[in-house]
Design brief:
206 residues, five-stranded mixed sheet, 5 helices, 27% helix
């Protein structure tokens, strides 16, 4: 679709949670402050730990001989490992989450107006978005940004990132004046196209 690939890494640690944009084709990760993605206050992270490389068709991560290894979704990185939106990265004991914008795999056309292809994190966010519709009174609004961030233990920036991807997957344009109306439409579309069902919402209650 001609969209330039953009990548982000959400870094969580004692200093808080932040979203770091990967602005170059080769982004280094490690404890040294000269890295593109700096992971502070964790002695299990090497000074130069890993690198994320951007190719025309996607992103890959490679361990750089770190002492404690690099993992993607719990699996050790040997050679290069392809990264997809929502993948959980771990450098030593530090957790990170990878996001991509413009990935070809996020542009798969939905068949017969069924649900689009969703990542695990996107589906979790849809459940959090739609849950108030089940638990509240009639015409209850869907969950807000802060509410979803708190429930999923992620930053508000990460929620906005995933929402932007979901709006694209469901083909929802920005409404005039912005505001929460697009979240309402997204929640309605998610249920109409059975990306989320009432049974899912009942089963996802805490």
């Amino acid at each position: 679709m001609g969209v330039a690939l953009g990548g982000f890494v959400e870094v969580r640690g004692p200093q808080g949670t932040r979203l770091v944009e990967l602005t170059s084709d080769r982004s280094s990760l490690g404890r040294a402050t000269t890295n593109d993605v700096v992971v502070l206050l964790d002695a299990t992270v090497s000074r130069l730990h890993a690198v994320i490389e951007r190719y025309p068709t996607g992103f890959c991560v490679r361990d750089l001989g770190s002492a404690n290894g690099t993992f993607v979704n719990g699996e050790p990185v040997r050679g290069e490992t392809r990264l997809r939106t929502g993948d959980e990265l771990r450098l030593g004991n530090s957790p990170l989450t990878f996001f991509a914008v413009g990935d070809d795999e996020s542009d798969i056309t939905a068949v017969a107006d069924g649900p689009p292809v969703l990542t695990r994190r996107e589906r979790e966010l849809l459940l959090a978005l739609c849950r108030p519709l089940l638990e509240g009174a009639a015409f209850a609004p869907p969950a807000g940004i802060r509410q979803m961030a708190t429930e999923l233990f992620v930053s508000e920036a990460a929620v906005k990132f995933h929402l932007a991807n979901l709006y694209g997957k469901f083909g929802l344009e920005e409404p005039p004046g912005g505001g929460p109306s697009r979240r309402v439409t997204l929640a309605g579309e998610a249920i109409r196209r059975r990306a989320v069902t009432i049974a899912d919402l009942r089963g996802a209650r805490h």
